[in-house]
Structure formats: C-alpha cells, structure tokens
Amino acid sequence: MSEQKMIVARGLGKTFPGTGKSGGQVEAVSDLNLDVAAGELVAFLGPNGAGKSTTLRLLTTLLPASSGEASVVGCDIRRDPAGVRRRIGYIGQGSSAGYTQRVRDELHSQGAFYGIGRRETRLRADELIESLDLGAIAGRQVQTLSGGQRRRVDIALGLIHRPELLFLDEPSTGLDPQSRANLWQHIVELRRRYGTTIFLTTHYLDEADQLAERVMVMDHGRLIADDTASALKRDLAGDRVELGFDSAADAAAAAAHTSGTASGTAVVVPALAADEALPAILRSLDAAGLPPRAASIHQPTLDDVFLALTGRSLREEGQAPATAEHTTSVAHESEEDAA
Ligand SMILES: Nc1ncnc2c1ncn2[C@@H]1O[C@H](COP(=O)(O)OP(=O)(O)OP(=O)(O)O)[C@@H](O)[C@H]1O
C-alpha cells in the first residue's frame, strides 16, 4: 500500500487568459512534477497567487489543465475525471455546508449525492460525527455553528464517501489559535484512523512545520522546494548564534574570532546546532576578552527557507500570520528577531 502513488503529475501547467489592461496570459502553474505516496500528509506553501489553489483545482479536475498530465488515485485527470472525483475528497476555501440544514441531515444528503445506500450513509455519518467530535452539534443548523465547528463539518462532508485522498484548501484560515489546534488534532486523528492521504494548502508556516511530514513550496507557479521541514531548514537556512557588542570595533574583533559576520554592533555566527555551539562560543569570547552584551540562538523557520530560496519573506507579502519565533534568549537583553 505504501508503494501506491496517490498523485503523480508530470509537466502539469495552467495558463489563464489575461484579464488585466496588459491582456497578457497568466501562467498560474508551470511544468509541475509531483509524486505523493499513499498515507502522506503534505503541506503546500507559497505566497498569495503562487498557484496553490490552481494546482488543487487541476488535480481535483475542477479545472482543465493547459499542459502536462496527472494521475490521481490511479485515475487520469483528463481521461477519467469522474473516477478521480469518486476517489477523492475536496474541501475548498470557505464553507460548503448548506446554511439552514442540520449537520446530520447535511451528511446524509452528501451520502445520497455519492450514491451510498441509506443504511451505510447513516453508519458512516455516525462514525464521522464521533471521530470529528460533532456529537453535541449534530442536530444544529450549520448557520449556528462557529468557524471551527463548520470546518469540521466540511471535513466530515468531504470524507463521507471514504476517499483515499483528501484535498484541503486552507482548512484553518480564519480560525482562532485554539480552533486551529483542535482542527489539526482531528486531521491527524483521521489520518491515523483511516490512513487517508492528505494534501493541504496553508498560510500558517508553523502548522506546516510541526504537522506535515512533507512540505512543498510553490512560487510563481513553480515548485521550488519539496522535502521534510527539517531537511529544508537544515539544508537551506541553518542555525545561527546572534551576538551583541557595545561597539562596532568589538563586534568586528569578535566576528574575526568566531568566523562570524559583523554588522554594526551585531555578529552572526552560523552553526550546525546553535544551542550546543553557544556555550563554547561564549567561553572562547570571554577568554579573548570580548564578552558579548547579549547572545541568542536562532533556529530557522520555514520563512527563512523561503527567504533563502527567493530572497523574499512570506510574511512580508502579508502571507503568514504571526508564528512563534524559534529564538531563545540566553542573556538579559535578548536580540529581538527582526524577521
Ligand atoms: N480563473 C482565473 N482567471 C485568471 N487568472 C486566475 C484565475 N484563477 C487564478 N488566477 C491567477 O493565477 C495565479 C495563481 O492563483 P492561485 O489562486 O492558484 O494562487 P494561490 O497560491 O492559491 O493564492 P492564495 O494563497 O491567495 O489562495 C494568480 O496570479 C491568479 O490571479
């Protein structure tokens, strides 16, 4: 089963006719090659307009591709779009659940839509209500639910036909941190219980970092990185020790002593494991008569990875909401991470 490919895309592309004054075409997705194995949880990241939603819409057959090919759960997106749709769940941005319908009725209607028998639909609906913790709200109208509850209802609707592959387009956008954490708990639990392969887009870099096994980064319609979050951070960003001095002269001397780089009164020293390197650096600077005024370690985030790849920050582009910084202060005056 683990050998089975859930998504294989080769040279996939989508060009939209131009809509602006210039009238030029928009190459939303270019020459995309993807391989996703059964059971993987993949987070798809990128700035606004990078082409993430378009990719999802191509793979779910909601949009026809302009070039290339792809097979999703073994079905060709061009030749067998109905086969793809039967085998996948897709939850787009925004709630798809009807406003005045009750949660349980909505699940039953969705089962009927997929041609699942009544008895089986009821069993599956009960199981999803239990596993997504919807019991207390199953009899309520969707319009009375909170954002997080609605999102869980959306996911239950996307799973009623037991798809092997679930696409989620920004499942946690707009939710408060507690609802986001709760939703993720459910996503992880669903995957454990049903072995569903999950391919999702998110703007939350910390979510992708902590919860996805694999991170794909898209920019200007192209895939620019594809690996585990830890490998991307290790290979493309790396740890560093940040030191502060009273004068630029001291900083320059300390930079020479530590093989670091000085900028004004600050020094940055790249390190494999900054937390382990820091004590030795401090001892050595002390011995050289150059004790720093402040010291902190910086462990890279996925934003640093994006910065290393593109020279731009995802956050600068209004992309990522605040995330917990991985900067640990070890002196009374910590260097605030400027990112
Ligand atoms: N129907 C369309 N017609 C014309 N251009 C489109 C259409 N849909 C998307 N685009 C353009 O294609 C590019 C990729 O858009 P897409 O929605 O895939 O990006 P995204 O990465 O999902 O962005 P976001 O994070 O904002 O959702 C953008 O330049 C967008 O304006």
From TrEMBL:
<dbReference type="GO" id="GO:0005524">
    <property type="term" value="F:ATP binding"/>
</dbReference>
<dbReference type="InterPro" id="IPR003439">
    <property type="entry name" value="ABC_transporter-like_ATP-bd"/>
</dbReference>
<dbReference type="InterPro" id="IPR017871">
    <property type="entry name" value="ABC_transporter-like_CS"/>
</dbReference>
<dbReference type="GO" id="GO:0016887">
    <property type="term" value="F:ATP hydrolysis activity"/>
</dbReference>
<keyword id="KW-0813">Transport</keyword>
<keyword id="KW-0067">ATP-binding</keyword>
<comment type="similarity">
    <text>Belongs to the ABC transporter superfamily.</text>
</comment>
<keyword id="KW-0547">Nucleotide-binding</keyword>
<dbReference type="InterPro" id="IPR050763">
    <property type="entry name" value="ABC_transporter_ATP-binding"/>
</dbReference>
<keyword id="KW-0046">Antibiotic resistance</keyword>
<protein>
    <submittedName>
        <fullName>ABC-2 type transport system ATP-binding protein</fullName>
    </submittedName>
</protein>
<dbReference type="InterPro" id="IPR027417">
    <property type="entry name" value="P-loop_NTPase"/>
</dbReference>
<dbReference type="GO" id="GO:0005886">
    <property type="term" value="C:plasma membrane"/>
</dbReference>
<feature type="region of interest" description="Disordered">
    <location>
        <begin position="316"/>
        <end position="339"/>
    </location>
</feature>
<dbReference type="Pfam" id="PF00005">
    <property type="entry name" value="ABC_tran"/>
</dbReference>
<feature type="domain" description="ABC transporter">
    <location>
        <begin position="7"/>
        <end position="245"/>
    </location>
</feature>
<dbReference type="InterPro" id="IPR003593">
    <property type="entry name" value="AAA+_ATPase"/>
</dbReference>
<dbReference type="GO" id="GO:0046677">
    <property type="term" value="P:response to antibiotic"/>
</dbReference>
